[in-house]
Amino acid sequence: MKKRLILYKLVICVTVISLSGCKPPRNFFEDTDDPGLSRLTSREYNIVTAYINDSAYINPYNYNATNNSGGNSPVIIKVIHTNSTMDTLTIAWQIVPNDTANNISWYSNITLSMPVPKSFSASDFLMWNGKRFPQDPTTVTIQLGQYGSATPTGDGSIYFIKLSPDTTYQTYIFSGLFAGNIDGIQITKGRFDFKLSQSDITF
Amino acid sequence: MYKYLIPFIFCIIFSLALKAQPSLTFATGIAADINSANTNETFSHIPFTLIWKPSSRPKSSFFFKIDYAIPVSGNNVGDAYTLNPSLPAMVTLPETVRPYLFTVSLGLHIHLYTSENKSIFFLDILPVGICSQNFKVTYKNYDKVNYEVLNPDVDLKNSGYVAAIGVEYLMHMSNNNSLAIMLHAQSPLAAGIGDYDMTYRYVAPLQLTVGYNFFYNKKRK
Q1: Do strands A87-94 and A76-80 pair parallel, antiparallel, or not at all (unpaired)?
Q2: What's the whole-model pTM score?
């Protein structure tokens, strides 16, 4: 009886330990040429990194240990309907400094905005696979969300390197480069790699 | 685990060397990768082999083998992208992958046949070996300021257990030493490539080497 009790406790301990090691992966693989930034990938790692005035930023890792859920914060893609002749497509990420020694950040998010026709749909978005912007007549605006301050806006650029279905044909690889300049604030070497579901691009 | 393996190996070797006539073999040749998982790169090497046999018993004996292989091929391509509108959006860069191999093995000669001129065929079984594989990756003509390689391969160094099997032919020479011709096939590392995927996999070399086997510390009859 005593031996069986010890065995049960051992099995429970091993199970708990093994389950606690199965956190959603961070998928941060550092680019040795650009310290603090992730490598440019198209593997659905759900990661975005960039330099803001030469400081590395990354999307935060949100993990709920209670139900073992969470992971890297997602990309938010939506079309904002306006009263003008064009709507606005926005691509936004939360960001935090990629420096464990310094968690203080002026910036909370990055948003890229592009004018799109009123009829813009998911299939139009997927046609941007392999395209760089700005590309006449489509411009790119970049915004930096700042804590307790107005959101500065400037000129940006984005390259949709991979915007195509993955091997499952149920989700999409969303991978590329971005950069921008906002009144002297330089956003450089930005790269993103995300897995998009159908609902993420339902406009 | 390695700290127990190496003293154990030395205990076996020295216990056999007490009443033995040891020999050494130096050999070199060519090696090709036979790991079918390496579909993107074709690796080939120049191996340098040192074999120490603590005993000259003709029928069978343990031996200690050290291999160092210098890579001579392993090419692929990588695509690099840029936001700079004045440059081509995408370029294809030549990629070189060079895996350096260092292996230490403990094996057993199994005598197969002795000819009239005292030349001997052996079956070599090497069930215990530790191999270190060190991959060096470079991209040629890579403008790191403007371009980023997509899904880049990176350097990787890892060690792990390997096993090998092969045949050896010792051609008897007039001075009682031998010309050694050997063919050995080694498994890839029993280890994972890591969480970040590469286009290359661990090397499983098939080595053809030719060398010279000689006895030292010969006993007087």
Answers
A1: antiparallel
A2: 0.86
For an interface test with B, the pick among A47, A48, A128, A132 (most B C-beta atoms closer than 10 Å) comes out as: A132
**Is B197 within 8 Å of chain A by CB?**
yes
First to last CA, chain B: 43
As a whole number of angstroms, the distance between CA A187 and CA A131 comes to: 20
Output phi, psi for B48, to 5 deg: -125, 125
Task: Sort strands B156-172 and B120-139 into parallel, antiparallel or unpaired.
Answer: antiparallel
Q: Evaluate if residue B11 carries a pLDDT over 70.
A: no
Interstrand relation of A172-182 and A185-196 (parallel, antiparallel or unpaired):
antiparallel
Local confidence band at A68 (pLDDT 50, 70, 90 cut-offs): confident
Contacts of B62 (CB under 8 A, 6+ apart): B12, B13, B16, B53, B54, B55, B106, B107, B108, B109
pLDDT over threshold 90, residue A148: no
- B positions 15-74 inside 8 Å of A (CB): none
* B148 neighbourhood in chain A, CB within 8 Å: 31, 40, 177, 189, 191
Q: Which amino acid is at A27?
A: N
Residue B124 has pLDDT above 90, yes or no: yes
Say whether residue B87 is in contact with chain A using an 8 A CB cutoff: no
Interchain pair B150, A40: CB under 8 A? yes
Region of poorest pLDDT, from A103-112, A191-200, B83-92: A103-112
**Residues of A with Cβ-Cβ distance to B149 under 8 angstroms:** 40
Under DSSP, the state recorded for A198 is G
Q: Which residues of B touch A41 (CB under 8 A)?
A: 150-151
Residue A199 phi/psi, 5° resolution?
-70, -20
| pLDDT over 90 at A16, yes or no | no
Q: What burial class does residue A148 get, using C-beta atoms within 10 Å of its C-beta: 0-12 exposed, 13-18 middle, 19+ buried?
A: exposed
The CA distance from B196 to A45, in Å, is 10
What interface predicted TM-score (ipTM) does this complex get? Answer: 0.87
Kindly state the tokens that stand for B97. Answer: 């992958």
- Determine contact, residues B80/B149, Cβ cutoff 8 Å: yes
